[in-house]
Design goal:
- By secondary structure, this protein is of the alpha/beta class.
- The chain folds into two domains: 191 residues, 3-Layer(aba) Sandwich (Rossmann fold); 85 residues, Orthogonal Bundle (DNA polymerase, domain 1).
- 43% of the residues lie in helices and 14% in strands.
- The protein has a seven-stranded mixed sheet, with helices on both faces.
- Strand 2, helix 3 and strand 3 form a beta-alpha-beta unit.
């Protein structure tokens, strides 16, 4: 059963400013929570395109969107192929793009997917079950320095080098097979005083490994650039992030789109011909309400940014 509590549902869809006859792309379809809200605002001439690399999500979204009064196209793919997908559907421009980043509740809750440090499952963590790289491959074959780098960079884990060292020492004896084994190794690597504070000691490392396995940050940068190019004038992009690195990428790309002339200040006239192409609708990110966080604790780190094409 693919059940996902959609975060910032109304705020994100309101941010798209949906036109009944427009074309909207949900780049992270999931169970269809946002998409159903978009579809309800579209008329018969409107088109909703839903993209997800998880076949279980697509199946759930199909049921959620049943009976919608607009045209619908669902595509199994990674959103880094956004421009290709639009070309295949013969869509030149869209009126809005929505990104709801990170791992979904069902992916965390399905123990066999290997995303959670609470269970005991094979090390997998692929959002696309047909993807080539698994968490098992990363943990058991990547060099110690590279493991330490991703734990530090993607997980902001201050004990990254200690954890990477423990992983490599353990795998010399026998391959690390399961999420429980990995979680125990991480726990052992972190000093006892640090383990007694804050969230589960393996949370940051599991997050970092998942991001690396799915190349989530590289895919996001590429997809946002493609979305901006294919966004119709007056159209909007809404991005919900759950990780500081995701939010920074979104903020940087939106700010670059807002930037005008970059000529040195002493130039008498502009020669770069750079003009702003975006306007930030949200100067500061929109956060979930205390009530939403109380009802869905996984919403606590969510941030929504919205930009409009000039």
């Amino acid at each position: 059963m693919f059940r996902h509590e959609t975060v910032l549902k109304e705020e994100a869809v309101d941010g798209l400013n949906v036109r009944p006859e427009g074309v909207y792309v949900d780049c992270t379809l999931g169970g269809g929570g946002h998409s159903r809200r978009i579809a309800d605002r579209l008329g018969p001439g409107g088109l909703l395109i839903g993209i997800d690399q998880d076949p279980y999500a697509l199946e759930a979204a199909q049921k959620s969107l049943d009976g919608a009064g607009c045209r619908i196209r669902l595509v199994r793919s990674n959103f880094r192929r956004l421009a290709e997908i639009l070309d295949e559907l013969q869509i030149d421009e869209a009126d809005g793009f929505l990104f709801d980043l990170g791992v979904s509740s069902p992916q965390l809750d399905q123990e066999e997917r290997g995303f959670s440090y609470h269970g005991d499952a094979p090390l997998d963590m692929r959002m696309d079950p047909d993807g080539d790289l698994t968490a098992y491959d990363l943990v058991n074959t990547w060099p110690e320095k590279e493991i330490a780098r991703i734990l530090s960079q993607y997980g902001e884990e201050r004990f990254a080098r200690r954890i990477a060292g423990h992983i490599v020492e353990r795998r010399k004896r026998t391959p690390i097979q399961t999420t429980r084994e990995l979680a125990d190794i991480i726990k052992e690597a972190i000093p006892a005083p640090a383990r007694r504070r804050g969230p589960h000691p393996a949370r940051r490392s599991f997050q970092a490994i998942r991001i690396a396995v799915n190349d989530e940050l590289g895919a996001l940068s590429s997809a946002l650039d493609q979305a901006i190019k294919r966004l119709r004038s007056g159209g909007r992009i809404c991005v919900i992030s759950f990780h500081s690195l995701e939010d920074r990428i979104c903020k940087r790309i939106f700010q670059a789109g807002e930037r005008g002339c970059i000529c040195p200040s002493d130039f008498p006239v502009c020669v770069c011909n750079q003009r702003p192409i975006l306007r930030s609708v949200t100067k500061k990110p929109v956060l979930p309400s205390p009530r939403e966080v109380e009802q869905n604790p996984r919403a606590r780190s969510a941030k929504l940014r919205i930009a409009e094409k000039i």
